Amino acid sequence: MTTLTEDDLHISVSGLRKMYGDFPAVESVDMQVRKGEVFALLGPNGAGKTTTVEILVGVRDRTAGEVSVLGQDPRADRRAWRNRLGVVPQNTGDYMDLTVGEVVDHFASFYSDPIPSAELISMVGLTSKTKSKTTSLSGGQKRRLDVAVGVVGRPELVFLDEPTTGLDPEARREAWDLVNYFRELGATTVLTTHYLDEAEALADRAGIIAAGKMLTVGTIEELGRSAGAATLITFADLPDVAQIIPATLGTVEAAGREDHRFSTSIATDAPTEVLSRLIEHARSLGMAEIPGLSVSRPTLEDTYLRLIQREDAKR
Ligand SMILES: Nc1ncnc2c1ncn2[C@@H]1O[C@H](COP(=O)(O)OP(=O)(O)OP(=O)(O)O)[C@@H](O)[C@H]1O
After folding, report:
1. What is the complex's ipTM, to 2 decimals?
2. If you write DSSP's letter for every residue of 138-161 in order, what string do you get?
3. I need a labelling partner for 79 at 20 to 30 A (CA). Which of 99, 112, 261, 272 fits?
4. Rounded CA gap, 128 and 125, in Å?
5. Of 102, 98, 167, 166, whose CA–CA distance to 134 is shortest?
6. 51 CB less than 6 Å from ligand 1?
7. pLDDT per position as a tens digit, 51-105
8. In this structure, which residue's CA is closest to atom 25 in ligand 1?
9. Does ligand 1 have an atom closer than 6 angstroms to the CB of 47?
10. Cβ-based neighbours of 35, under 8 Å, separated by 6 or more
């Protein structure tokens, strides 16, 4: 594993804790976000995602822990530092009686090199609404305007708190395009979400958080492999499998009749070895093909559900 230096990191958090009275909204969060990556904070309702983001962007104080964002402690909240961030909070205020174009122009005026308003409005799919009052926008359209306002200053580090909640599938895709656009510009993105497909589609790495605790951090593939989830190899009509796959290599999990076939599943951490033994076995029986063969890798969803359920069981 390569050792990361402070220069490679846009965010470094250790031992983060936030108490509301004697309730720990954030109990132990450790995470590092590398320059240029898309990092997803995944977790169920009330996990502590928003509180963590609010601390990172300097709008909420912390009880304990070390936090560095773009090389600074967010508590200092310096203007030059803030201008390098783009923040799309979960709940934004209203934009009063202004039109979409006026709102974007207004926020653009705070920055020295903003994304041109028309370009940005088009990127979030609101061109036809440029002259409409924001009060007439649908919930999803308003959310897209929030995203535009948050990123108009070409931030180096973007925080998107549940950017696609309430959006229809097409608008979700547009929001995803925007994240990819920022990735191409070299920006770092932290997004909170409880949509696993969103993390899978967008994130380089993700952290799973529940009940204020960071349970695991890794690439999407690493997360899929963690929490003891095994690869599942399924096939049909291959006799005497138990004799060629010892228990040390895999567990023959299910055997049943399906569509006139006798199907078998093997859960294994050594899929290549199991497959090669199966193929050799099939050949020795004179079979050219193994009927119904499929290999399914454990998914992010498997790991997520396992970890969240394990955490729920503790409470
Ligand atoms: N101002 C506050 N005072 C007291 N408790 C709070 C406050 N803000 C948040 N909490 C509690 O802290 C916990 C974490 O909340 P937070 O909003 O960070 O969760 P979240 O992961 O963002 O959830 P969601 O996905 O529902 O937005 C929740 O139990 C919430 O009720």
Report:
1. 0.95
2. -HHHHHHHHHHHHHTT--SEEEEE
3. 99
4. 8
5. 98
6. yes
7. 999 999 999 999 999 999 999 999 997 888 988 999 888 877 778 889 999 999 9
8. 45
9. yes
10. 8, 9, 10, 188
